[in-house]
Design goal:
Layout: H1 8-23, H2 32-35, H3 40-48, H4 60-74, E1 82-83, H5 84-91, H6 98-108, E2 115-116, H7 118-127, H8 143-146, H9 158-172, E3 180-181, H10 182-190, H11 196-206, E4 213-214, H12 216-225, H13 236-239
Antiparallel strand pairs: 1-2, 3-4
Helix pairs in contact: 1-6, 4-7, 5-6, 9-12, 10-11
């Protein structure tokens, strides 16, 4: 793609780690007995995680804070619960297949209610450490997993990136209807000497659901995945 595509190997590895962690939620990982003999940190990891070898040793307070931030991102309507549709819509903007989204959701939804509560997500982030570095989830704070071009990532926090994307969205959404049309996108960027062919490619990359319009979440996700947007003329550079 125009911004450099996500590595297939990385996507497969992320999928493998997440699904593996979820798959082992009902039974201890074989290395647990060895880990518990090493240090208090690895003992803690062995007790709380489905895959202790992947546990980064963060405190529960830090993990809960991360989970709460992710919950706020996924709870699109702000009703205090995350639906399957909200998870699917959000994660489809990153490297996730429909099958993987279903597995992630069912693994976190421990009461099988069809919705994720804040407490369920907190528990999942403790128990399944791969979630903490997964693109679109905990990986929003990790430039190595969130960006298609980590070397170009400026290390800005997800909060700052979202604020920038929202400011850019306000610039491009000329009629303030909550959607950036292809015409609005083109009209704005041609003022900054973008060629029409480039504008078309950029629009198609950002419009991940191919709806013909870019919504705020799509632009946010693009600013996370494609760090060059944050310094591009008329985009991130226009609000810095």
């Amino acid at each position: 793609g125009i911004f450099s595509s996500v590595s297939c190997d990385r996507a497969k590895m992320v999928a493998f780690l997440i699904v593996s962690c979820l798959a082992f939620r009902a039974s201890p990982w074989p290395v647990r007995s060895a880990l518990t003999q090493r240090s208090p940190l690895t003992m803690q990891a062995a007790e709380r995680s489905s895959w202790p070898a992947l546990d980064d040793g963060r405190s529960l307070e830090e993990i809960h804070k991360m989970a709460d931030a992710v919950f706020a991102n996924l709870d699109a309507d702000g009703d205090g619960s995350i639906t399957n549709a909200e998870v699917r819509d959000f994660l489809s903007k990153f490297v996730y297949t429909e099958e993987l989204v279903v597995k992630i959701f069912s693994g976190i939804d421990v009461d099988a209610s069809g919705d994720l509560s804040a407490e369920e997500l907190r528990e999942a982030f403790v128990k399944f450490p791969a979630l903490r570095t997964a693109p679109g989830l905990g990986g929003l704070e990790n430039t190595e997993v969130r960006s298609t071009w980590p070397a170009a990532d400026d290390g800005a926090s997800a909060k700052d990136i979202y604020a920038m994307a929202d400011a850019v969205f306000a610039n491009l959404d000329a009629n303030s209807d909550g959607i950036i049309s292809k015409a609005e996108f083109s009209d704005w960027l041609t003022k900054y000497n973008y060629m029409e062919d480039l504008v078309t490619k950029m629009f198609s990359e950002i419009d991940v659901d191919a709806s013909g319009g870019i919504d705020p979440d799509e632009l946010r996700a693009a600013f996370v995945k494609f760090p060059t947007l944050r310094t591009s003329p008329g985009l991130g550079a226009a609000v810095n």
